[in-house]
Amino acid sequence: MINIDPLKTVFGGDLVLPGDPDYEAALHRWSTTAVRPAGLVAYPKTPEDVSHVVKFATEHKYDLAVRGGGHSQSGASSSDGGVVIDLSRYFGGCEVTERDGQSVANVGGGCIWKNVDETAIQHGLATVGGTINHTGCGG
Q1: Is 100 left (phi over 0), alpha (psi -120 to 50) or beta?
Q2: Would you identify the CATH topology of the domain 5-86?
Q3: Full pLDDT tens readout for the chain, 139 residues
Q4: Residue 3 CA to its chain's centroid (Å)
């Protein structure tokens, strides 16, 4: 079992351990072949939280994986007993802003194409990311 006490003092997001009520949901992936029993799933709220988890995993020599949209068939977004940084909870959004007279989509690391499509439509834009909108934008 991973001792999260050193991380809890600096981490502002959610930490999920085996036995927690939402642990099974935290392991869910699009491909069941990519589901592995992580020792800790961390949902960062800020870029600093991401940094804290990377430092924690490195210092304690835990395997580290990052889950974006959760669609890695190879299992790269999962860890067997290690630490998973899951970006889907707090970094799953998309926002369109104006920059130099053009509309620019700012896409979070845990975003799926559905979120991009819906945000683009609200701004009169279209996307060219494919036709399957439940997949992750970045892996």
Answers
A1: left
A2: 3.30.43
A3: 899 999 999 999 999 999 999 999 999 988 888 889 999 999 999 999 999 999 999 999 999 999 998 777 778 889 999 999 999 999 999 999 999 999 998 999 998 888 888 999 999 998 877 666 666 665 4
A4: 22
Domain ranges for the chain, please list them.
5-86, 92-139
Using the 8-state DSSP alphabet, how is residue 53 labeled?
A: H
Q: Determine the length of the chain.
A: 139
Percent helix / strand / coil, the chain, rounded to 5: 25, 20, 55
- Nearest-angstrom CA–CA distance, 92 and 133: 13
